[in-house]
Every structure is written in C-alpha cells, then in structure tokens.
Amino acid sequence: MAEYSTYGSVAVLQVNNPPLNTFTRHVLQALVSGLERAQRDPAVRSIVIAGKGPTFPAGADLEELLGTAAAPLLSNLRMVDKHVDTCQKPIVCAIHGTALGGGFELALASHYRLAVPSATLSLPEVHLGMLPGAGGTQRLPRVVGVKSAIQLITSGQDIKAQQALTLGLVDKIVQGDLLKEAVSFARSVEGRPLEDRRISQRTVPDADKVDEVVEATRKTILRKARGAIAPLTCVQAIQASVLPFAAGMAREADLMTYLMTSWQAAAQQYVFFSEREVRQWSHPRDKHINFRTAKPTVIKSVGVVGAGTMGAGITISLLQAGLKVVLLEVNKKQLDKAIAVIQKTLRQKSASQKMSQLTTTMDYSQLSDVDMVIEAVFENLRLKKEVFRKLDVITKPQAVLASNTSGLDIDKIAAATKRPDKVVGTHFFSPANVMRLLENIYGKKTSAETVATVMQLATTIGKVGVLVGNCAGFVGNRMLGPYRSEALFLLEEGVDPQDVDRAIEEFGFPMGPFRMTDLAGNDIGWRRRIEARLTTEHGPPPDTPALYRRGDRYCPLPDMLCLQGRLGQKTGAGCMMLQEAKDDLTENIYIRFRTDGSVFDLRRLLAHTKTLEELILDLLFADDCALLAHTEAALMSHHAPSMCNRYDPGSRTALPDPVVLQMIQDYRQEHGFKKRTISSQEIVERCLYSLINEGFHVLDEGIASRALDIDVIYLFGYGWPRHTGGPMYYVERVIGLEKLLRSLETYSARYPNHSHLQPSPLLRDMVAKGGSLAALGTTDSKL
Ligand SMILES: CC(C)(COP(=O)(O)OP(=O)(O)OC[C@H]1O[C@@H](n2cnc3c(N)ncnc32)[C@H](O)[C@@H]1OP(=O)(O)O)[C@@H](O)C(=O)NCCC(=O)NCCSC(=O)C[C@@H](O)CCCCCCCCCCCCC(=O)O
C-alpha cells in the first residue's frame, strides 16, 4: 500500500496501489504509519513520497469516497495532511505520471516538489461535481494567486510539468532517474528551515484584489457552468483562502460537504464511471458476444474515403493516434483543401511529424493494402453503396469497411458488398478531431470481431465508443428527431426561435435547437427529408396536406426556410468567406433560380467556374438565372441569412431576424394557429421529455443495450449538460419516471397528433411495476 525503505538518512514512502495509486483508507493509513515511523527514527532526516509503477497518486479513490468507507477515508486523509504539514523533517514529493486531486493536494502540503517533464498535475474535482477538499482550494491560491487558482480549479485543466515549474508549483524538473534524484535532493535540503516551505504559512499574493477578481470571473463562470453548482462553489472556497489557513480549511470542508451530498456530484460521478463502462460492451442480441469474448483485428493503417469536413477531421484523429492513413478524394480541389486543414491542425498541436504517416490520393487502388476503410462521403445511400461496392473489390478481403453515416441503413450499405460481416457504422461527430463520441453501429451480419475492432479503434484514437444497433438515425439522431419536432411545434404555437433556444440553454445545453441547426446546416435535415419524400426541392410533395405526412403531424417551416436559401450559418459564413478565402466555400450552398425554381448546389457549379466571385457575379447578372431576391441581396452584402437568426459578419452571436419572425407569424395566421404565451418550463419539458421518451423506445427495441449508453451518447456527442448525468439518468434520478409519465400523458392528451409524446410502453411498464433503468443495465454499482 505504501512501501517504506531508507537510503541513508532519507526515508522513501512509495504508494503502491495499482493501477493509479489512488488513495483508499488503507493507502492513507499506510502513509500515516510511514510518516510516523520516519518522524520517530532519529536516523531519518528527510522523507520522499513517490508513486510506484506508472504514476503518482491520481487522487482519492472514488469508490471509497462515495461509499460507506468515506468517513475513515476522510479522517485518514486529514491525518496525512496534518502529519505532512507539521512534519519537522523536509518532505519531498517525487511526481511522475498524473498527480491529480488528493495526490496533487498531498504534494502541495509537502515542502518540496520535483517532477519529470512528462508529469501532469491537476485538480479535476470540479468534473466530479466536487472541489479539491484536501486543502487544494487553500494552498493553490497561496502559490499562484486567486485569479489563476480560480481558472485552474474551475476548469480542472491539466498543468504540464514545465507550466507547473513556471507557476512555482514544482521546484525542479528532473530529467534522469526520478527516485534517485529525489533522494539526493532530499539529502541536500536536510536541516534547512521549513517554515517558509509550508504553503499553509504563506499569504495569498493578490489577496487585496480578491473581491474584484471574483466579481470579474463570476460572469464567465456562470455562463460556462450553465446550472452546475460545483464551479461557483469552488470559487467560494478559493475566496476563503485570504482568511487565516485554519478558517479557510474549515470553509473548504463545509463547502465540500455541501457538494459531496448534492445530486449533481452523484450525477457527475455516474458520468465518470459510465464513460469507462461503455467500453464493456455486449451485443444486445447475444450477450455471449462481448468485450471479453470478441477479439479485435489489429488496425495499423486506415483508408478514409471523402476529404470533406468529416473526412479531414477523421484523418486528423487517426494520425494523432499514430495510425497510417490513406486519404482518398476524387475532387482535387477538395483534397488540397483537406491537406491544408490537416497540416494546419497538426501543426497547431505540434504534431507535424504525423503528416509523414499520411498518403493522399485520388486513386482507389491505393487502398488495396489498408486494414480498414472509413467512408465519409456525402450522406446519400446510393453514393455510399457505390463506394462500398468499389471498396469491396479493391481492399484486401480481411479489411473492415466502415461507414461514417449519421443515420443511413448499415444493412443496405453492407448488402452492396460480399463481406457484410466486415461492414459496420462508425458515426463520428463534427468536428471529428474534437468531439469525443464515436457511435459504432452493428448491422444484422456484422461479426463480433468487426464490432470489437471498431470499439478498440475508439479507444486507440481517444474517443468514447458506444455500441448501438441499426435503425434510422441510430440512437443519437433518432432521439433528436422528436426534440426538434417539438421545438418546431412550439414555434407554431407562439414562441420565437430565440425563446426555445434560451430555455434549452438555461437548462444547460451549449446551444438550443435553432442555433444548433444554424451551425450544422439546415440543409442536412432537408436533404434527409427530401430522400424520405417528406418534401421536395421545390416545396411540399403534390397532394400532401401542409401539416401532415403519412398521418403524422409535420411542421414545414424548416423546408420553407431552406427553399429561401436560409441554410444556417454557413450561408452567411460561405459568403463572408468571399472576402478572405474564396476557395474555402466547398460546403453545400444552394442557389434557387427564379426562372424554373430549380435548386443548385453552389459547390457543383463552382467546379466549372474559375472563382466563387466570378460565379456569383455571373449568377447575379445573368438574365436567365436570377437568384431569389433575398439571397441576391445577401450575397451582395457578403452576408447571407441563416435559418432563424442573423449573425453579424465574423460573429457567432445569434440575433433575432425580423424576416423569420414575420414569416413565422404569417405561417401561424395561414394555418390558424393562435399565438399563446408558453413558459420556459413547458418548452424544456416538451422538447426534452419527447427526446427521453424516444430513449425508452430505443431501449425497448434493443438499439441501445443500457441506459448509460444513451447517456454517454448525449453527453459526449450532443452537449447534454454533464452535471445532470445524461437524459436517462436525469429523468430517473432527478425528475422521476412517474413524473415523466404523468407529464407525457398530459401533453399527449393535449396534442394527440404528436405521436412522440405518447408514453413508451416500456416507460408505462416500468412505472407500473416499479422497475428502474438500472435494472435494464445502468451499471451504477460503483456509486
Ligand atoms: C488518472 C486518469 C487520468 C487515468 O486515465 P487512464 O485513461 O489511464 O485510465 P482510466 O481512466 O481508464 O482509469 C483506469 C481505471 O481506474 C479507475 N479510476 C480512475 N480514477 C479513479 C479514482 N479516482 N477512483 C477510483 N477509480 C478510478 C477507472 O474507473 C478505471 O477503472 P476500470 O474498471 O474502468 O478499468 C483518469 O482515470 C482520471 O482522470 N481519473 C480521475 C482522477 C480524479 O478525478 N482524481 C480526483 C479524485 S477526487 C479527490 O481526489 C478528492 C480530493 O480533493 C480529496 C477530498 C477530500 C475530501 C475532504 C472532505 C472534507 C469534508 C468532508 C465532509 C465530512 C464528512 C465526514 O467527515 O464524514
């Protein structure tokens, strides 16, 4: 637990609790005993604390901290802190790996800190809904000042060894053998006075500005925290660091108790464990196929087909993980653009050497030797099937063929090949090199080995892989459908897009549904609806009721906006790019012509023209292909409208657009909707409960095998606020299943034709029988 040895006058205490040397009560007890022994022994004149194996302690053991062993753990932790803080012999912490939470706090309580260059220090408790409760909020500001301490603690960010040296958090970076160096360093400081080495005895350098600093940061923290209580509570604890040390520690303990007993801390710790638990997948239809039984194929090289935004992002992720990549794109201009983006991103990450692992090509035969291909072409089933047909012929028989589709049928794609067992979905989220989620979709014939391979790939490239079944939209986008529909129905009834966004953002999402569509591109959903024949490029399908499709309520507002060229931020951004990077405009921008109402993709037109400017000038001045008036004006002003909001050039701040508001008003009038006032609560409930209700359907159908899989998808792919634990956790632990059912019953009685508000049979069953999502597989046994 903590191994004791001596090297002459130096006692070495090495924490040994694999894999991360976390502090359990027994580890802390062993540390107390070791410290007592070293203090008692007159031959010992200094002490080194280190971690055995790969790391310095990574903090308190969460299973103990949150369980019945919390009290002895805390009392032992206090004892260690007291022994270290009052010790009359110098204590040197030798840091390698990750010194996190309580581990870093132990180092701060010691007299000296040495670190290897690769070491990382951090106080990540805020991510667990807590604060650094072992003196971190009191000692850190005494070293770096209140301002930096607020920044470091409320973000929980990593501090690399070199930065820690600059901040005065470590005393020396050690290049060679850490333990040997630490022992010799300890020997060199023996007998020196210790008072000025005790951080607890120092004063906070910017103490006189504490109120000013707190006031200045509060607003930013509030905006970022979006309903999470931990960040602001951390600030309160840091504020107390200007008090005498003992008083500050007492305040820290009070605030820690408050946080530790909050529902948000429980939710965030559930998130921590769920993020790891999704790796322990099992096939919903055959539990014998699981992460233990299925062996992944080793992937060393990957082909990426399609060098659009997604293809480039996927390529960056693969290169960063050290994999060889062959990037194929048939459009030379697009390929060049992707290469530039990849180069720039890798350079920013100081990883330019990774470029040597990249081959770019326009020739499919270059994919003949890769272990796996990820197709990232346009979201069109016909096109994807064509690509897979080619890949099946060209790639080696054992290669895995994955599609980065966001919702198309994996079985239909697999059917285009003679190796459906090797075909699988890998749904990346944009930007693919940033977003952590990888939704992996197995088809009817996908083999266990193929599933294991893509789940392993997720880990290799630092993503959170979640295994789901095949259905339209899979888990994430399928659940988003009802949410979006309800948001649109709310517009019909009287709220403005900004009201919906505000309510959802106040709940904790980084973006409401309309800002999100503006960002992603309204045409994505439009194309999908066109393919599903719910609408056409010219308007509603003939002989179709305006507000119904196949018997279901339908809101045509987004289609109407698309027909007017209001495709989202990119229509504005695309035109703004005119000024700076005209070659950059390669996404799908549509131009609708007055003459025959036909819609063209600007990108395609661009391929036949010299420059975007020339094309636009041609279009604007050609008699036979005049643009719609408003698009024309927007192009002229280099600022096309987005779907629902206006954006000042270069800005992402959404401003209400009077044109859209008027359009919605006219629409209400035309279809006889009576405007009424709708509360934020109703907005949130209707949007989120319909999404969660779909989650119950998804579980019922076995598309997701556990509620935690859905939670992880929403947390890591859709910006669901982390402090609420995810949609399924939130509804079960915070709202209550019974309340959800009653609310859905009320809303569905009011809106009988909104089918997604009809409570799912699984939810009804669970409420009737007192069942729980945990019993369905939400493994929160660790909590
Ligand atoms: C460390 C990592 C970066 C490593 O990442 P890596 O990818 O290598 O590995 P994994 O993440 O997969 O982890 C492997 C394995 O280990 C499990 N695990 C990781 N961390 C912990 C942990 N801290 N505890 C338990 N288990 C852990 C993980 O689940 C994996 O398990 P699996 O089965 O899936 O293989 C990365 O793991 C990481 O970031 N970990 C989290 C580190 C962290 O957050 N540390 C901080 C912990 S909280 C803490 O330290 C609190 C302190 O501030 C002290 C608090 C003192 C409280 C005092 C309160 C006083 C007032 C109290 C009230 C009075 C009441 C009373 O008196 O009774």
From TrEMBL:
Keywords: Fatty acid metabolism, Isomerase, Lipid metabolism, Lyase, Multifunctional enzyme, NAD, Oxidoreductase, Peroxisome. It catalyses: (3S)-hydroxydecanoyl-CoA + NAD(+) = 3-oxodecanoyl-CoA + NADH + H(+); a 4-saturated-(3S)-3-hydroxyacyl-CoA = a (3E)-enoyl-CoA + H2O; (2E)-hexadecenedioyl-CoA + H2O = (3S)-hydroxyhexadecanedioyl-CoA; (3S)-hydroxyhexadecanoyl-CoA = (2E)-hexadecenoyl-CoA + H2O. Residues 473-575, 683-770 form the 3-hydroxyacyl-CoA dehydrogenase C-terminal domain. It is found in: Peroxisome. GO terms for biological process: fatty acid beta-oxidation. One of its GO terms (molecular function) is NAD+ binding. The keyword Lyase applies. CDD domains: crotonase-like. Its EC number is 1.1.1.35, 5.3.3.8. Residues 302-470 form the 3-hydroxyacyl-CoA dehydrogenase NAD binding domain. In the C-terminal section; belongs to the 3-hydroxyacyl-CoA dehydrogenase family. This is Peroxisomal bifunctional enzyme. The gene is LOC109465671.
